[in-house]
Specification:
There is one protein chain. The chain contains five helices and 16 strands. The strands form three sheets. Strands 1, 2, 3, 4, 5, 6 and 7 form a seven-stranded mixed beta sheet that branches. Strands 11, 12, 13, 14, 15 and 16 form a six-stranded mixed beta sheet that branches. The chain is globular. It binds nicotinamide-adenine-dinucleotide, magnesium ion and zinc ion.
Amino acid sequence: MSARWTTAVLDPNTPGGLAVAHCAEGFLVDANGALFPRDWLRRQDLDVVCEHGIGHFDGQPVFLLELRSAQAPQGCSWRGLRQFMLEGDSDTYTLLGYAAQIATWAREHRFCGSCGQAMVQIQWERAMYCAGCELRSYPRISPSMIVLITRGDEILLARSPRFVTGVYSTLAGFAEPGESAEDCLVREVREEVALEVKNLQYVGSQCWPFPHSMMLGFHAEYAGGEIVMQADEIEDAQWFSVHALPPLPAGRSIARYLIDLYVARRLGLAEPVLPR
Ligand SMILES: NC(=O)c1ccc[n+]([C@@H]2O[C@H](COP(=O)([O-])OP(=O)(O)OC[C@H]3O[C@@H](n4cnc5c(N)ncnc54)[C@H](O)[C@@H]3O)[C@@H](O)[C@H]2O)c1
Ligand SMILES: [Mg+2]
Ligand SMILES: [Zn+2]
C-alpha cells in the first residue's frame, strides 16, 4: 500500500484498466514503464498462465498477467524487480513487489497440493480453491528476522557468498515452525556467527518480495562469545567501527536502515526513515 497504490481483489472478467505482465525475467516495460493499458496488452498474443485483479493505482484498476514465456512485444523488454527496488519510484516498486508475490504464488498454486486437481480463483478474497477437497491456498509470506548487533561504537556485519562483492550487511534468517521472533533471532545469530545477544529490541518491519519475505527488524547488544562463521552461509563477519564502515546494502533495505539508524544515534545525526 502507498498513497497511489491500494490492493484489492478484482474480477478479471471486468473490462478495461491497467495491467502489468510478469514472467521469470521480471516485468515487461516500455518507454512509459511497467503499467500498460490492459486492452493493448491483451492484443499482444502473450502466453498467459493466469490473470489476477490486484488493486488500484491512482484510482485505476490494475490486473496482473502471469506469462509462461519471456517473449516481449516489439518496443518492450524485461526488467527485474530488483532494478525497480534500486531505481524505481516507491509507489511503482510497492505495486510491483505485490504483483510479483501474487504472480509467484498464483503460478505455484494452479494445482491442489493435497489432491492434485486444478484450482480456481476465489472472487472475493485472494485465495485459490480446490473444488475436489475444498482446500484454500493463500499467498505465502515468509517471516524473516534481521538484526543489527552492536557493542558500543562497533557493529557486527557479515557477508554471504550471495552478496555483491565487498558489501557487508546485518544478519538475517527465516523463522522456523514453533519459534517466536526472538527465538529465531537468537538461533540465527548462534548458527551464523556463534555469538550470544541480549536486550533485543524490535525496530520495524519491511515487505521484502524476493520472493516473499516479511522482514522483522531488531537491534540487539552483544552478550558474549567469539565469532565462528557458519560454513557456506557466511563468508566473512567482523566488528566495524561506526567511524569506518565497509560498503553497505542498498538504501531501500531494512538492513541499511538498521545500520543508518544506529550510526545516526551514536553520532548525533538526523535519524533516517524506514523505507516501505
Ligand atoms: N531487506 C533486507 O534488508 C534484507 C537483508 C538481508 C536478508 N534479507 C532477506 O531475508 C531473508 C532471509 O535471509 P537469509 O537468506 O540470510 O536466510 P537464512 O539465513 O535462513 O538462510 C537462507 C537459506 O534458508 C533456506 N530457505 C529459503 N527459503 C526459505 C523459507 N521460506 N523458509 C525457510 N528456509 C528457507 C535456504 O536453504 C536458504 O539457502 C531472505 O529473503 C533475504 O533476501 C533481506
Ligand atoms: Mg542468513
Ligand atoms: Zn484438492
